[in-house]
Amino acid sequence: MDINNFEEYLKEIEQTTLDSKAVLEEFRLKYLGKKGIIPALFSKMKEVPGELKKDFGARVNEIKVKAEEKIEAVKEQIEALELKKQSADLDLSLEGAPFSAGSLHPLTIIRNRMVDIFSKLGFVVAEDIEIVDDWHNFSALNMPEDHPARDMQDTFFIRKDPDIVLRTHTSSVQVRVMQNQKPPIRTISPGRVYRKDSDATHAPNFHQIEGLFIDKDVSFADLKQTLFYFVQEMFGKDIEVRFRPSYFPFTEPSAEMDIKWKKINHETGKEEASWMEILGCGMVDPAVLENCGINPQEYSGFAFGIGVERITMVKYKIPDIRLFYENDLRFLKQFAGEI
Ligand code: DAH
């Protein structure tokens, strides 16, 4: 074709049917390839007389743009057709690849259940931070500096003087609650706590639920009844418990509660019954009420701190606390489906 046949080129570009990728590629090479029509036309530019160069260039360019547009449009059409064909081949009734749904960690299951039980008695959840100052973890709870009771809880320090610690118990939350709320108070505080301690029944990072009840005329009988209700809801009416007198600086009198549980002795393969301490409790010491701005002449109350790991171990007969933190699917899968 001659240079003057611009119209012919344009017509051909417009009219050629390109119905496959191969034909399309042929067309592309014919016009735009190195030895194609368009490069050939451009190379003829030098033969065109000066005054016609501009017009010539513009027309070649027009052919080039038209060819490119055609290629792009046809390519899109072909791809859309291919996609349509693929989805026609798709069998939506085929089973998908199996995947395992996650499930709740046993500690979460039991924590939730504990919160549910106490909410039936009107306790509401109050949460707080895990890195606390000395006042919230110790001093406000009747443990001034150098108090020997501080040694009961091996503490992780973030900073010294002034002391900032990883809370050793959720009792720090009761301080904040009493400072910020007016009685009657009925809160329960689940959360992580930290102590330098590690064996089959102790972990450096474990979970507690702190309970706090402050009102007029609250008695030790109320405390006992609340905790009995809790263990019976959790473990059933036959659960055996015992209260032991104990000491906590922030309660007077204080007690600990043990429950009878059976665990499997892996050496003998037999179930063995033994007592396990699950909580500390007592009547809130008047000095603590005072520290937190509550008048002990007017109000009294009780508090308790329950170990979530301990409850879970008893509930599911888990012999070693470390199993909770290893993320071993063989262990965790046993709790799938529990809520
Ligand atoms: N904070 C105690 C601990 O971690 C547990 C505890 C005992 C909490 C008595 C209480 C309480 O609220 O009244 O060992």
Structure explained in plain terms:
- It is a single chain.
- The chain is elongated and about 110 Å long.
- It starts with 5 loop residues before the first helix and ends in a 7-residue tail after the last helix.
- The chain has helices at 6-15, 21-32, 37-43, 50-88, 106-120, 134-137, 171-180, 220-235, 286-291, 308-316, 329-332, and strands at 124-125, 131-133, 157-159, 164-166, 185-194, 205-215, 241-248, 251-264, 271-284, 300-307.
- With 339 residues, it is an alpha+beta fold.
- The protein has a seven-stranded mixed β-sheet, sandwiched between helices. Strands 2-4-3 form a three-stranded antiparallel β-sheet.
- The mean pLDDT is 92.
- The protein is built from eleven helices and ten strands.
- Bound molecules: 3,4-dihydroxyphenylalanine.
Q: Would you spell out the secondary-structure blueprint of this structure?
A:
Elements: H1 6-15, H2 21-32, H3 37-43, H4 50-88, H5 106-120, E1 124-125, E2 131-133, H6 134-137, E3 157-159, E4 164-166, H7 171-180, E5 185-194, E6 205-215, H8 220-235, E7 241-248, E8 251-264, E9 271-284, H9 286-291, E10 300-307, H10 308-316, H11 329-332
Parallel strand pairs: 1-5
Antiparallel strand pairs: 2-4, 3-4, 5-6, 6-10, 7-8, 8-9, 9-10
Helix pairs in contact: 1-4, 2-4, 5-10
